[in-house]
Specification:
The chain is an alpha+beta fold. The chain has a single domain, classed as Alpha-Beta Plaits (2-Layer Sandwich), CATH 3.30.70. It has two helices and four strands, in the order βαββαβ. The chain has helices at about 15-30, 55-65; strands at about 5-10, 35-40, 45-50, 75. Strands 2-3-1-4 form a four-stranded antiparallel sheet. The radius of gyration is 12 Å and the shape is globular.
C-alpha cells in the first residue's frame, strides 16, 4: 500500500537540503520505490513530501538518509491519488 512521508525541518535553511543532495544526491534522488517528491520552504524552515509505493520502500530509503529521531517523517497511508 502506498504511503506519504512528511518530513519537517523547522529552523533550518533550505540550503541544507541542497547540500544534502550535493553530498550523496545520487543515492537520494534515484529511489525506485518513490513515486513523487517535493521540497518546499515553510514559514520557519523547509519540508519534504514524498509518496512511496510501500512502507518497505520508504524503510529502505531511511537507511540511506540516516536521520536523527527528531527528524523522522510522519507516515500516512494513501487513500487516493489523482
Amino acid at each position: 500500500m502506498a504511503v506519504v512521508a512528511w518530513f519537517e525541518f523547522p529552523g533550518e535553511p533550505i540550503e541544507n537540503y541542497d547540500r544534502g543532495l550535493e553530498v550523496d544526491g545520487e543515492a537520494k534522488q534515484h529511489q525506485p520505490g518513490r513515486t513523487f517528491h517535493v521540497c518546499f520552504e515553510t514559514d520557519d524552515g523547509w519540508a519534504v513530501l514524498d509518496v512511496w509505493e510501500s512502507e518497505e520502500a520508504l524503510a529502505a530509503f531511511g537507511d540511506v538518509l540516516d536521520l536523527p529521531p527528531e527528524r523522522q517523517p510522519r507516515i500516512y497511508r494513501v487513500h487516493n491519488v489523482m
